[in-house]
Write a structure and sequence with these properties.
24% strand; 6-stranded antiparallel sheet; 23 strands; elongated; alpha/beta
Amino acid sequence: MANNGLLMQYFEWNLPNDGKLWKELGADAQKLKLSGVTAVWLPPAYKGAAGKDDVGYGVYDLYDLGEFNQKGTVRTKYGTKKEYLEAINALHDKGINVYADVVLGRKIGADKLEIVSAADFNQHSNYQMIGDNKTVGAWTGFDFKARKGKYSDFTWNWRHFNGIDWKIPKNGDEYDFTMSSEIDFSNREVYEELVKWATWYVGETKVDGFRLDAVQQIPSSFYRDFLYKVREVTGKELFSVGEYWHWNVDVLKNYLSEIQSEASLFDVPLHFNFHNCSKANGAYDLRRIFDGSLTKTNPVKAVTFVDNHDSQPGGMFSSWVEDWFKPMAYAIILLRQEGYPCVFYGDYKGIQSEKYKGFKTALDKLMKIRKTKAYGVQHDYIDDPDCIGWTREGDAEHKESGLAVILSDGKGGTKRMYIGKHFAGAHFSDALGNAKYNIKIDEDGFGEFYVNRNAVAVWVRKETKKS
């Protein structure tokens, strides 16, 4: 029996630097399975330039998964390599897939400075050089001496980068520190090394797919060839989802066309619709909640989410969805047929640094309903600016499946919605407990479903008491 897919992002940006995440994840495997999670997206597991304090996006050594004493630490922020592999095994034992966060755009924390010739380019146009060539000091030498060539003897130098942050020499031979170096994806050595690394990574960790960081910073032709080659060499399907942080769905559609590969994208435009609705104090037209979203134009390629580590308070693209609207937004991504939903760790377990407790109780209910009830033909009633709904008829494969959802960002309301003649005479109740009175489906398969002010109600068949 095939159940609905459900992805969980198992981290948030401000997790404590205690090295315990991999252990926590392994201990959580059974609970995640029961809740309906079918795949987990994990944070970057390799050594960052900031050592134990690095969230993982300041990449230093892709081959160091918490095994070597580099940047002042053996473990990463999340634990050791041994604990990482144990957590993946625990998830696999429960039938849960694992997606690794792949961060390839830049490297930081070089081991040595190189003297190179460089020129300023317009920060808004990589093709417009401004000024003359200069001799500068660039931190572009990566030799990973602590690793001693284990897994790969490849070392990085200035020829492998096409962009650096630099300062003009102060006194002839003094150079300021370079923050990061942008990788040159047109360099054949770079392509071959990254394919080699990804092949090693899949074989070493047994991950099932990738979350691709900041794909807008990397030529689509690179990922087109990279994904094809790594899949060919490993013989694995390797589900891949890219992060392209842009509000315009046409930009996302163009990227999917250019990459010419089996890949999905996070539905950032839908996230912004949720954010804007949550900020509108009831003035948002709910009939337009899917407008301009990837879910509407290409649902098969859309990975839907409410918030993530970038949109959380203080994140790089902070655009937090307000608490009152969170249950509605999650009902939308979890209980409809379109899209592949991703639940955020911060919403599920809270964000300690923000004293934010999250919505675990509500999410557990919604995730269970997705696993057991959200199947069958969908009927939409997206027809009112303040109150919308939909139904799922259920299917024969999932016993007692079928549901009706109604939500309102205003005073609430009632909708007559068709859920199927096979439910005629059945009583339905709100699984979230917001609507207090049960309703009965009429002989034509319709019900008068209702919802309270600023709330969501998820109507499921009321279980009859066994005598």
